[in-house]
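Exercise: predict the fold of this chain.
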Amino acid sequence: MSMTEQGIGPAANPAYRAYVLALLMVVYTFNFIDRQILAILAPYIQAEMGFDDEMMGLLGGPAFAVVYSTLALPIAWLADRMSRVSIIGVSLAVWSGFTALCGLATSFWPLFGARMGVGVGEAGGVAPSYSLVADYFPKAQRARALAVYSFGVPIGTALGYLFGGILAALIDWRMAFIVVGLTGVLLAPLLKFTVKDPVRGGFDRAEPVAGEAEVAHVPTKAAGFGEVWGVLLKKPSFWFLAFGAACSSVYGYGSAFWLPSFFERSLGMAGVERAVYIAGIAFIGGTVGIWFGGWLADKLGKGVNRAWYPLVPAIGFLIAVPLFFLAMNVHDKWLAFVLFLIPQALSLAWLGPVITAVQHLVPSHMRSTASASFLLINNLVGIGLGIYLLGAVSKALTPIFAEEALRYSLYVGQWFYALAAILLIISARSLKKDWVD
């Protein structure tokens, strides 16, 4: 074994790191199944429980986002010091278990508490996974690897819509929560016992520079909160990236939650048909967009062209705004399906490029904490505000627009994509200076 291979440990085996990436993507898929299943089940829950749109917005947004966002930071601090694999495995079991408990709720507050439990578990899933992926893949492949990991977003969202909608239509909404939750619990041991924690920053030190001898990597001591934030506070690109992503997530999470209800109220779709329809949009549009965004950013962002990492998604957001509006105003549902695919793809193209850029704003021993800081902003604003805001606006507009109130609420939310594009364009100006190789 060469000194380079010693420096990166298990990540030296391409087949094994492909397996790890695939398994982490599956775990992330369950993350989004459990996070988004509430969206497809909302009409069934509202019919039985009598919840209005604002109450559903609280269940989908703040109930999950507040604990998810705030706990992610201390858990990521632990992940920079302890086994990231163990943390992800325990988190998977916790959020899956609470998803199953959602099916036992009989009123608003027990369901609110179970959704908080899902947020507690999911707080330990994403930031440690970002760090693992960064340590399993060399720099030139990270945007694409993180894009593959991020396939969990559209796949999980689609499967949540599909399985949740089918189980609710054929059995009931409670069984949908129980089945998907218990399935996730069974996955946790596979992750724990088959994935190894690689050397932190191994690829960053193991890739030889021309004219230099290979050197074995010496692990760096994990950094404290103060040290990480001291670095981030001096890097304006981090803040523009974080708040740009957060603005995109306001409408990204908001529309993902409310579009199933829009299809039922405004397009007359329900049951299995609605589940298959929205699942197809989420899966096809999302996977194409995430892969294209990661591939294009890796291609254009080589060498000194770091600005393309935020510019690629910024351009996508600007194109997505009018296309979402157009898709929502087409009366033929299959033409609308095709039109929805394009903005769906463009709106998720940010994941690979922006997450890669955040990974390169700090040294390797700070990545989990830096990622959690990014996620704190992105999710607290995106999930916490987006889902609730669109629900509250829909409730406020109901006396005027009745069943079409949700349509106008979705129109309001679309402008957050334009704001996201502006912030990402600004971040591009300082990214080259802030980048850490």
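Check your answer against the key: The two ends are 25 Å apart (CA to CA).
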